[in-house]
Amino acid sequence: MKNLKLIIGLMVFTSIISCNDNKNRQVQYMPDMYESIPYNADGEESVNGNVVNSKPVAGTIPRGGAPAYDVPDTIEGYDTAKVEVKSPLEKNDENLENGKAMYTIYCVSCHGKKGDGQGYLATSEKFAGVPNYKDRDITEGSIYHVLMHGKGLMGSHSSQLTYKERWQIVQYVEVLRADLLK
C-alpha cells in the first residue's frame, strides 16, 4: 500500500511538471541535432552568414564522381567519340570479369551472350534489328558513347552504370567482337 501511494504521488508530480510551456523546449539534448546549420550548396556562405567554400576547385572531380563526358549526343559527337575517346582503364582480367558480369546484367537480353544480336528480346521478336558486333565498325569510344547516350532503340545506360563499369563493359564488348571476327 505504501508503494502504491509512492507510485501515484510520482505520477501526479510528473504530470504537474510536464504541464510547462509546450511551445518552447525546456531542455535540448544534443542541440545540433535539432538546429542544423543550413547551407546554400551553390553559395559562398551559409544562410546564417558563416563563410564556407562550397564551390569545387576548377578542373577537379568530386569524390565518387567521374570526369565529365562532354561529347554531344549527335552524329558528329558519335564520330568524334569513335576517334578520340579512349579507355582510361588498364586491360586486365579483373576489369574484364566485371565487364562480363555487367554485360550479363544489362546487355545480354538484347545483344546475346556472344554479342551476335541474338538475345532473348531479339529472338522473341520484342525488338527487331539488334546489331551484331561483327557487322559494326565500332571502337571503344563509340561503344562508350552509346552507353552514355544510347542509340536507336537502345536507351542510355549512364544512370545504371558507374564510370568504371561502363569502361569495363567496353573492354568485354571488344573481346566479344574479336571472337566474332575470328
Would you kindly provide a written description of the structure presented here, covering whatever features stand out?
With 182 residues, the chain is mainly alpha-helical. The protein has a domain at 75-181: Orthogonal Bundle (Cytochrome Bc1 Complex, Chain D, domain 2). It is 45% helix and 0% strand. It has eight helices and no strands. It has helices spanning 2-17, 31-34, 75-84, 93-106, 108-111, 120-123, 140-149, 163-181. Helix 3 (75-84) crosses helix 7 (140-149), helix 4 (93-106) packs across helix 8 and helix 7 crosses helix 8. The longest helix is centred in the last third of the chain and has 19 residues, at 163-181. The radius of gyration is 30 Å and the shape is elongated. The N and C termini lie far apart (95 Å). The model has no long low-confidence stretch (mean pLDDT 83).
Q: What's the CATH architecture of the domain at 75-181?
A: Orthogonal Bundle
Reported for the largest beta sheet, the result is: none
Find the structural class using helix and strand composition: mainly alpha
Order of helices and strands: HHHHHHHH
User: What percentage of amino acids are in beta strands?
Assistant: under 5%
Number of strands: 0
The overall pLDDT average reads 83
Instruction: Choose one word for the global shape.
Output: elongated
CATH topology of the domain at 75-181: Cytochrome Bc1 Complex, Chain D, domain 2
| Radius of gyration from CA coordinates | 30 Å
Helix content: 40-55%
In whole angstroms, the N-to-C terminal distance is 95 Å
Q: What is the CATH class name of the domain at 75-181?
A: Mainly Alpha
- What is the CATH superfamily of the domain at 75-181? Cytochrome c-like domain
Q: With helices defined by DSSP (H or I, 4 residues minimum), what is the helix count? A: 8
Pfam family, one: Cytochrome_CBB3
InterPro entries: Cyt_c-like_dom, Cyt_c-like_dom_sf
Organism: Polaribacter marinaquae
Keywords: Heme, Iron, Metal-binding
